[in-house]
Amino acid sequence: MTVGVVMLVHTAFDRAEQMIRHWVAGGCPVVVHVDKKVDAATYTRFVNALSNLEHVHFSERQRCEWGAWGLVAASQGAAKLMLDQFPDVRHVFLASGACLPLRPVSELCQYLDARPDTDFIESATTADVPWTVGGLDRERFTLRFPFSWKKNRRLFDRYVRLQQIVGFKRKIPDGVVPHMGSQWWCLTRTTLSAILNDPKRPEYDRYFHRVWIPDESYYQTLARIHARKIESRSLTLSKFDFQGKPHIFYDDHQELLMRSGSFVARKIWPQAELLFKTFPRKTEPARIMAEPNTSTIDRVFGKAVERRTRGRPGLYMQSRFPNMESENGFTAAPYTVLQGLDDVFPDFTSWLAKRTGAQVHGHLYAKDKAHFAGEETVFRGGISDGARLRDYNGRMFLTNLVWNGRERHQCFQFGPADTQDIRWMLAKDTNASVWVVSGAWAIPLFLSNRPASEVRAEASRLQRIEHKLLKVLRSPYARARINISTLADFVDAPMDILQTIIDEMAGHRATTLTEVPKMADLTRFAAFLQDLKNQGMHPFLTGDFAVDDAQGPKQPRSRKPYVVGKK
Amino acid sequence: MSAHQRGNFSDVWLAYRLRWKRRRFLFRIWRKRKQLAEVVNRTTDIGPNDILAFVTVRNEMTRLAHFLDYYRNLGVNHFVFVDNASDDGTAAYLKVQPDVSLWTTPHSYKLARFGMDWVGWLQWQYGHGHWCLTVDADELLTYPYRDTRDLRALTGWLDQQKMPSFGATMLDMYPKGSIAQATYEAGADPIAVLPWFDAQNYRERVHPIYENRWIQGGVRERIFFADAPERAPTLNKTPLVRWHWRYAYVSSTHQMLPRRLNHVFGTPARPTGVLLHTKFLPTICAKSAEEIHRRQHFENSDLYESYHQNLTTGPDLWAPTSCRYENWEQLVNIGLMSKGDWV
């Protein structure tokens, strides 16, 4: 008989009874504390149910409220009873009714026998750990908390604020250095009796009576005064969410708990039949002295906190506030938007798809419909190509598209003839990479062979729209990767820009370009632009094409005229 | 007065108006109580922590056996049904179920706010303090860890987190091929017949008044409402609520008052669920034909007439990009529901 268990119970009595029987069967005496709030009938029933067990005692009942002194008083009384009644006990283990032993009691006893002088209690100074919720760490020890945090939250907060303003500070007793940690400890008889029989205990108790959540700091602080050898960790596996509430273990955590190698875990869902059936496990000689290893379980639960604080980028359905300006970006993955290149190179999309392996769409925001890659009518995830549907929420259309196609790099063509709703989104989205060849809209007009006087109005409209987009892209709020060049500059040296685009889209698989795709025939294009100017419409976005250059700007070599279908 | 102050003032004013709106709903619910006739009342069996289900049905004989099994397995302790003049034996079947209380009414479903007035009255009487699940017979709730944790575990966690309501997105399930061709036998799992769904073609925005996330999209929109997306069915629901007699559903279970109950898709930490919608069982064709005459569904029955016409012809909803249903984990990975920080 080396380990005694002090158990605090306030609910789920059938499970608590099961646990008590288990501890006793393993040879551990148990002192039970039942919350005073539990009604007399339930209490009597509980005591009667356990009356046939010899090594079970019930300590004096205290009223236990979360964050208040009662919990400490309860464990003090129970621990004293334990030390008095069972002189053989060398370690006292504090547990609750929702604590489930994962490994056999004998393994715990052997583990503790090998460390007869060690106290297992998580204990850290407030300055060194970011555990506390609500910003009250040091102040737990220096303010007063007469109001319940759970019932009178507003009063609690206001009274704290008042004390902060007034600059009120309680005096911490001499020799006490506030420490805190998990309230589930396992202390040696020596340390525990030193704490309970300390001549200064009345002073300490008086002080801790008014500390907030004293069960997380009373033993943790006083053990530092009396203990010979502290292992600052709890033998009880418990996980807390970002609000400091304990996570609950369910049947599907069986595998994780199995692998954790912990002695005891909490809190267990009372209806988790599988866990209560599986644990505690049978003794395994190979494992008897194994140290607990909780890295896997830490990672799984850590992820939840991350989900809580960050969400999953680019996914709106997943209970994320649709905060378009949030730093996580709007979309799930990087994508590329190309404006004007498909006007310069008539066969551009298929060429680019071949070169990069990316999913290259046509004009997704065209007025007639969304032109998905391969002219599919329904894109992955069930996105329809209908223009009405798309324009009803143009931004969500794009976030859905990028999310559904996130396994491949998505790329689409854009232009001033398309619906422009996503303009600001493109500029602000850090995942967007926007390449604009400004003034390229003039090429289809030129190739339509209609006289300048006829296309003048259309040219003017497209230029206005594109100019607006450029203004947005150049605004100080723009955070996308943006590259704008005029048509004149681009056709002068297309290789450089194309190479950069391909490098960016294909990543390490990109190859060096040896030839540019077939360019539209720009013979007499300069003259066409001059015609427009003569009509009073100055296409300033195209850049400067020399009028007398009948061949258009530097053609690498002459080739057959190529006619593009009417846009 | 600064713009900010004006904002505050109109907020308070809106809150005040909605408070009265909620009271009007409660009054209306109370007024319509006489439309309900009790068939069998076993509500004395309801224990203090029981989870209750409230359902309005009309001719759902084919679905009921599976529906009851499904929710009994999930941990629903008692069912409260309102039968809207079924003539296929629904009432007789429900009447003999040991965990069902049944009311019946011949009155207009539409005028009872699509059953919400009837269900509201029963919730008002029996729901207070319980976790109440309000679903239709063609909605099967699924949520993270569904296989290993029942509704009691879910609601226990929600209680611990002080979350009084749980949100779910409707997911329309459909077969491959004409919806008239599929074969379904009563009692079988309808998802086996309707395993397909649209994965991510949903959009959402915050409703300016009720503050719920207004989610639209999915297969019904893709096929039937491509030209009128604003008319497409609303998919967000708040089916699971720890009920208080002051609460009221506004329009189906899409919106509630008070508004805080609608904040179910609000933060990344909130787990959400999916209501697998088995509307497109082969019986839909006959039902749609009936609906064209009854005109009891939706605010604007005229607009929905062509939709129902369409359905009677047994269209094929399947597309090469459709997704085949596997399990709840798949829905989490696709992003249709969230674990939040429930681990």
Fill in the keyword field for this structure.
heterodimer, A: five-stranded mixed β-sheet, 37% helix, 13% strand, B: 343 residues, alpha/beta, nine-stranded mixed β-sheet, two-stranded antiparallel sheet, 10 helices, globular
Q: Please, could you describe this protein's structure?
A:
The complex is a heterodimer of chains A (567) and B (343). In chain A, the strands form 6 sheets. A 5-stranded mixed beta sheet of chain A has the order 3-2-1-4-9, sandwiched between helices. In chain A, strands 14-17-13-18-19 form a 5-stranded parallel beta sheet, with helices on both faces. A 3-stranded mixed beta sheet of chain A has the order 5-12-11, with no helix packed on it. Chain A has helices spanning 13-25, 40-49, 70-85, 105-113, 153-166, 189-196, 201-209, 218-226, 254-260, 273-278, 295-310, 341-344, 348-356, 387-392, 394-404, 423-428, 442-447, 452-473, 487-492, 494-506, 525-534, and strands at 3-9, 30-34, 56-58, 91-96, 100-101, 118-120, 124-125, 179-180, 186-188, 229-231, 236-237, 264-265, 335-339, 359-363, 378-379, 383-384, 410-414, 432-438, 481-486. In chain A, a hairpin with a 3-residue loop joins strand 15 (378-379) and strand 16 (383-384). With 567 residues, chain A is α/β, with parallel strands linked by helices. Chain A is elongated and about 105 Å long. The model of chain A is unreliable at 317-329 and 549-558 (pLDDT under 50). By secondary structure, chain B is of the alpha/beta class. Chain B has 10 helices and 15 strands. In chain B, the strands form 4 sheets. Chain B has a 9-stranded mixed beta sheet, with helices on both faces. In chain B, helix 1 (3-31) packs across helix 4 and helix 8 (284-294) packs antiparallel against helix 9. The mean pLDDT of chain B is 87.
What secondary-structure arrangement, pairings included, does this model have?
The complex is a heterodimer of chains A (567) and B (343).
Chain A: E1 3-9, H1 13-25, E2 30-34, H2 40-49, E3 56-58, H3 70-85, E4 91-96, E5 100-101, H4 105-113, E6 118-120, E7 124-125, H5 153-166, E8 179-180, E9 186-188, H6 189-196, H7 201-209, H8 218-226, E10 229-231, E11 236-237, H9 254-260, E12 264-265, H10 273-278, H11 295-310, E13 335-339, H12 341-344, H13 348-356, E14 359-363, E15 378-379, E16 383-384, H14 387-392, H15 394-404, E17 410-414, H16 423-428, E18 432-438, H17 442-447, H18 452-473, E19 481-486, H19 487-492, H20 494-506, H21 525-534
Parallel strand pairs in A: 1-2, 1-4, 2-3, 6-10, 11-12, 13-17, 13-18, 14-17, 18-19
Antiparallel strand pairs in A: 4-9, 5-12, 7-8, 15-16
Helix pairs in contact in A: 3-6, 6-8, 18-21
Chain B: H1 3-31, E1 37-40, E2 51-57, H2 61-74, E3 78-83, H3 90-95, E4 100-104, H4 116-127, E5 131-134, E6 139-142, H5 151-160, E7 165-172, H6 190-193, E8 196-197, E9 202-206, E10 213-217, H7 218-224, E11 236-242, E12 248-249, E13 256-257, E14 273-277, H8 284-294, H9 301-312, E15 323-324, H10 328-334
Parallel strand pairs in B: 2-3, 2-5, 3-4, 7-14
Antiparallel strand pairs in B: 1-4, 5-11, 6-14, 7-11, 8-15, 9-10, 12-13
Helix pairs in contact in B: 1-4, 8-9
